[in-house]
Amino acid sequence: MNAMELGGAHPLRLPSVRWLLLLVVLMAMASATALWLTLQQARELGRPNQHADLWYVASVNSELARVRQVSHQLLAGEASAQELLLRLEVLYSVLDKTSALTSLSDRLHHQLPHTAATMRELSHHVDAWLHTLTPRPSASGERVARDVLSWADGLQQQTRMAVADVHVAVTEENDATRQSLHQRFVLLSALLAGLLLGTAALIRHLAQEARRARHLSRTLAQANQMLESRVAERTRQIEEGRQLLSFILDASPSDVLLIGADNSEVIFINQSLIRRLNLVAPPKHLPKSELLQDPAQCQQLSDELERYGEVGGMEALLGHNPPTWCSVSARLIEVDGRLSHLIWSFDITPHKRLEAQLRELATSDPLCGLDNRRAFLEKSTALLEHCRRHQQDCAVLMLDIDRFKSINDRYGHAVGDQAIIACANAMRATLRDADVLGRLGGEEFAALLPLAGERATRDTAERLRGAVEAIRIELENGDTLSFTISIGTTQLANRATLVEDLMIEADEALYRAKAEGRNRVVNLQPLRPRQFPEALAPPA
Ligand SMILES: Nc1nc2c(ncn2[C@@H]2O[C@H](COP(=O)(O)OP(=O)(O)OP(=O)(O)O)[C@@H](O)[C@H]2O)c(=O)[nH]1
């Protein structure tokens, strides 16, 4: 089935119908005209007195013959003058009628001038005879009869010829009329035949068109039905697919959101996200600011979507009450011709917790909770850099529990651990939040004190030593454990020195403190002169 068959009227059909219609109309008009003309002629032929002229000329001839006969009889004494007068009056009245007939007079004057002349001559004689006879019929009867007989032969001969001429003329006229009628009949027959053929062709054509239209209509109906069933099937499949997708997305542990890129109109939101946001029903609009807690992350999500069209695995706090750590991904897609943002996320709280635990494990000492060596070095390096940049002094302290081995040896490792924990807690409680304190290993600790000049360092170190010295641990055997620490300190003193170098210096001071009898603070004097700003200059 091609488009021509299915779409609209056939381009060749209408013009041919028009031509056929025009032909039929023209044929009908021509037939009507021919018929009208034929009828006119038939009416003309059917008019009364059409051939009366022949009858009257013949009557003139026969009446003239009677006048001759009465004239003979009058001269023979067998007829009266009154009878002759009567016959002449009859002849005159017939002649008078012939001249009154227009067709006859026309024909006589135009076609048969001899006959007209004969009639006029005869009228003239009859008129003269009547004028002679009428006043005194008996006196003039014989004279008139003789006069009639003297003219009668010639006149009779002429009227016979006139009869013949009129007869011939009428016959010819009838022949011409017959011929004309025959021709018109032939023409009318041809026109009627043409009309019949045209009408038949038109009917056949219209029937074909109707058949074709019915066929096309059936084909179209079948095609429509097929199309409708296909559309219905496809719609059903799409609907099933949509329901399945919706079911999968709702059952998914991930959050899924599809919103208009321009107005944040919600196109789809799954149950997981509705629950996560503590909503009772799907909202009409859900801007990203209501989705992400941090405005900066919200802006980042929008920017990356606009710039790259996608965002992958961005860690963000989702929702507000309470927020949940989620891995958020997004795509810029086109839905029904409009730009939309597809955002999906999944809860990474357990991962975050594990990560925090791992970070804790990686950076803190499992026994006492202080920073381990690595974390201490990281933090103190950053802090030292900060102090150097701002030309601020700071101190590095190395702290070591005195004769810790003997605690282990005497009370066991568990008590030794207790001592380490108690020492760490006491030191942490003594220092400021800004100070960095870490356990380097065993019973050895280190601290970095920002903004600490020599005196502040010595004072702080003394407070630390005193705090540890004050520790009392009640043991199960009833003994009370106390112990001390030795502290070695050194100052940054505006030098380009690494934390590790300062720790070596402080360790050297610690070594001296141990050597000088323990439970004391020893400060290692820096080798280079100090150049501090007035405000931060250590006291003399
Ligand atoms: N309980 C316990 N003991 C530890 C731990 N780490 C190291 N030690 C012990 O700490 C002791 C350190 O002893 P030493 O290095 O000889 O020093 P000390 O006995 O404190 O002597 P001085 O430092 O010279 O005062 C060793 O006996 C180690 O076994 C720990 O985490 N827990």
Description:
By secondary structure, the protein is α+β, with helices and mostly antiparallel strands. It has 16 helices and twelve strands. It has helices at 3-6, 13-45, 52-75, 81-100, 102-111, 113-133, 137-251, 271-276, 288-291, 295-308, 349-363, 373-389, 404-411, 413-430, 454-469, 499-515; strands spanning 255-260, 266-269, 310-318, 324-335, 338-347, 394-401, 436-441, 444-450, 473-474, 480-481, 485-491, 521-524. The chain has a five-stranded antiparallel sheet, with helices on both faces. A five-stranded mixed sheet has the order 7-8-6-11-12, sandwiched between helices. It has a two-stranded antiparallel sheet with strand order 9-10. Helix 2 (13-45) packs antiparallel against helix 7 and helix 4 (81-100) packs antiparallel against helix 6 (113-133). The longest helix is centred in the middle third of the chain and has 115 residues, at 137-251. The radius of gyration is 73 Å and the shape is rod-shaped. The protein binds guanosine-5'-triphosphate. The site of guanosine-5'-triphosphate (GTP) has 16 residues, from strand 6, helix 13 and helix 14.
Q: Helices, strands, pairings?
A:
Elements: H1 3-6, H2 13-45, H3 52-75, H4 81-100, H5 102-111, H6 113-133, H7 137-251, E1 255-260, E2 266-269, H8 271-276, H9 288-291, H10 295-308, E3 310-318, E4 324-335, E5 338-347, H11 349-363, H12 373-389, E6 394-401, H13 404-411, H14 413-430, E7 436-441, E8 444-450, H15 454-469, E9 473-474, E10 480-481, E11 485-491, H16 499-515, E12 521-524
Parallel strand pairs: 11-12
Antiparallel strand pairs: 1-2, 1-5, 3-4, 4-5, 6-8, 6-11, 7-8, 9-10
Helix pairs in contact: 2-7, 3-4, 3-7, 4-6, 4-7, 5-6, 6-7, 13-14, 14-15
